[in-house]
Amino acid sequence: xxxxxxxxxxxxxxxxxxxxxxxxxxxxxxxxxxxxxxxxxxxxxxxxxxxxxxxxxxxxxxxxxxxxxxxxxxxxxxxxxxxxxxxxxxxxxxxxxxxxxxxxxxxxxxxxx
Length: 113
Prior knowledge:
Blueprint: H1 2-18, E1 20-23, E2 26-29, E3 52-54, H2 69-80, E4 86-89, E5 109-112
Parallel strand pairs: 3-4, 4-5
Antiparallel strand pairs: 1-2
């Protein structure tokens, strides 16, 4: 009887593995895994050649422990000017963003860092 129970447990485990995504200790059934759909008609654009607006020009200073939210928002607004098609660029470092003021992303702007 123990051998049959063990065989059934192994079979069940194999079924679970084949019907779920392996995320370490977390298993999500395949029917619960959303399809990747970026929501952008035609897919996500290649922005490697878009002009970059450096957030440091607007007062963002990485690694200084000061709030950079307003400066990042100013860089995003500048990147959106003229219809967008630009990157609001944050060079390497840590930027402090306040909880009370959201980062306001705009159409046609990609935030990259």
